[in-house]
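hey can u check if this looks right to u? its 58 residues, i copy pasted from the old doc so theres a chance i mangled smth
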Amino acid sequence: MLYKHSGVAQTKIGQLLGGVDYGAVYQLRQRMKKQLPYDRSLKDQYEQVEQRVQNVEC
């Protein structure tokens, strides 16, 4: 979500998350995309955070 809404590069996101490398950030993004349609709890949490982010952007 940080990548989607901020335009920050995956390398920088990894640094912000405590030194995670670019590849790990990419893999996590891909896993989330695959898991969201199948995990209702994860999807609900994701949507709640996304709504909060959109409210901040307005």
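The mean pLDDT is 88.
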